[in-house]
Amino acid sequence: MSQPAGKSSWTKGQVGSGRLPAHGAARMICYNCRNGYRKAVISTSLRRVYLLSPHEFVLEELGRWLVQPGIPTERIRLAYSLTPRPGRVGATQGSVCVVDACFPPVATASLVNELLDSSPGALILVLAEQLSESFAFPLLRAGVKGLLTYAHARRQFLPALTAVSKGGYWVPRVLLTLFLDTLLSRGAAPEPARRTSLSRREQDVLDPLLLNFSNKEIAARLNISERTVKFHVSNLLAKFQVQRRADLILQSFQAQSLSPAVAAGSPRGPKDPSV
Questions:
Q1: The whole model's pTM is what?
Q2: Which residue segments constitute the domains of the chain, with CATH numbers given?
Q3: Widest CA span in the chain
Q4: Each residue of 229-243: pLDDT tens digit?
Q5: CA-closest candidate to residue 192, choices 172, 176, 211
Q6: Which of 75, 130, 179, 264 is most buried per CB count within 10 Å?
Q7: CA-CA distance, 6 to 23, in Å (whole number)?
Q8: Residue of 188, 210, 186, 187 whose CA lies nearest to 198
């Protein structure tokens, strides 16, 4: 079994910690990188991290990164097989499951699906050597919230955990754009991820936003100014608790694909292999 790409970067560098003066409950992690110190604020919304891998050195290294911010962790050593079984993970709100995708793609997808079936509240971040469309799209369709390569793990692991634990996403921008383009090429926008109180104008803006219209296109469609559109988009992102409009589209699609009406006959939603 070959070691993950970028593994050497996991065992080099120094990690320090300190406290932010204006945030008593937050922690700051500094990485000694070639470009200087990189700081990542770790949100206290991150309750627990479950690390799942068949490799002891991966579990140890990831666990070591979580010591300084004081994040509770549980290491789950998986058997290396085509049908890895995660067991029941008691993931609570604000907890994240980190899956080491060193398995074949089909086995990784099976592991993620079983994890989500047994622990519906799980928020999943997947670490992999490469993030190809054929590998990533089925995982995003299944409900994965974050995708990260081994090579970028040292710098991005903690910020990714924070984003995912708060209900957001951590997906490379280009990959997310390609995925959304594939979804929206079908011509139908997903339903909003959760019911929330919207004004009539916010609903008017939301409909084309979920079709990935630009602010300029929405303004022309509704005969309002781009500044007004930006105002309503900001309110919508806040109400749905996401940072980016792409996150809102993905969140809405995942919620729709996992709903009973859509998922009838399939525990993880639509089977269209084109996505």
A1: 0.65
A2: 7-171 (3.40.50.2300), 179-263 (1.10.10.10)
A3: 59
A4: 999 999 888 888 787
A5: 211
A6: 179
A7: 33
A8: 210
> DSSP of the chain, one letter per residue?
-PPPTTGGGGGSS-EEEEEETTEEEEEEEEEEETTEEEEEEEPTT--EEEEEES-HHHHHHHHHHTTTTT--EEEEEPP-SSS-------PPTTEEEEEE--S-HHHHHHHHHHHHHH-TT-EEEEEES---HHHHHHHHHHT--EEEEHHHHHHHHHHHHHHHHTT--B--HHHHHHHHHHHHTTS-PPPPSS-----HHHHHHHHHHTTT--HHHHHHHHT--HHHHHHHHHHHHHHTT-SSHHHHHHHHHHHHHTSHHHHTT-TTS---TT-
Residues 6+ apart with CB under 8 A from 252: 189, 190, 191, 192, 193, 210
